[in-house]
Amino acid sequence: FDRSDCKKYGFHYLPLFIPEDSSPSNISNKNIDFCFVASCHYQRLSLAEELHKLSLLYGYSAEIRISAPSVFHFYYFRMLSFIRGYKVEIFSSALNHQNYLAVIARSKVVVDMISDPNQSGVSLRTFEALSKNCKLLTNNQNLKNESFFDHNIIAFYSTLPSKIDINSLLDKEESEFNGDQFEINRFVENLLY
Fold it and tell me: What is the pLDDT of residue 124?
């Protein structure tokens, strides 16, 4: 799944597949400008706070949900958030998968953050978002090398996203992602043959 690892170990690169429960959503039902749903760590906490500020400052409708992986982390990140003066809410539990997919289905833009700068593959979130007819704002610059890359539906940020980054996607024409080649049956065929 990771281009660099495949090159290093002599494997054939094969990106992830679209999960079977990620059927396309109707573009007209999208009432959330952007969403960010993730487990909490330092970088994601900063990103969530920045997105929270942008939503308040510019009136974006946003669903920002970061959840702690344990009770200890929940209290740790809440204390850290308080010390830093952050206003974004940290949740003690993650959304269940169906609710998570429902948030994505109602979102125009999904914000993604890879936490490992050495990752060169496609995250599952990428395919979940694109298959739901969402645009993707990510820090994974390696997506430019993928066959499905389309600047109308994928944009990049470096450290933290800005109003310009979000608007660059919201203002672009609607473009649907054709994920036929990334369905699970095609993935299995490519894997086995």
Answer: 84
pTM score over 0.85: yes
CA distance 130 to 135: 6
Is the sign of the CA dihedral 117, 119, 124, 128 positive or negative? Answer: positive
Residues, the chain, total? 193
Which residues contact residue 149 at a Cβ distance below 8 angstroms, ignoring those fewer than 6 apart?
Answer: 143
CB 145 within 8 A of CB 36: no
Distances (CA, A) of 179 to 24, 32, 145, 169: 10, 23, 16, 20
What is the DSSP secondary-structure string of 74-110? HHHHHHHHHHHT----EESSPPPHHHHHHHHHTEEEE
* Residues in a beta bridge with 112: 138
pLDDT score recorded for residue 62: 96
Planar angle of CA 5, 143, 128, nearest 5 degrees: 100
Kindly report, residue by residue over 122-164, the tens digit of the pLDDT: 888 898 898 888 999 999 998 998 888 998 999 999 888 889 8
Q: What are phi and psi of 171, to 5 degrees?
A: -85, -10
User: What pLDDT sits at residue 89?
Assistant: 96
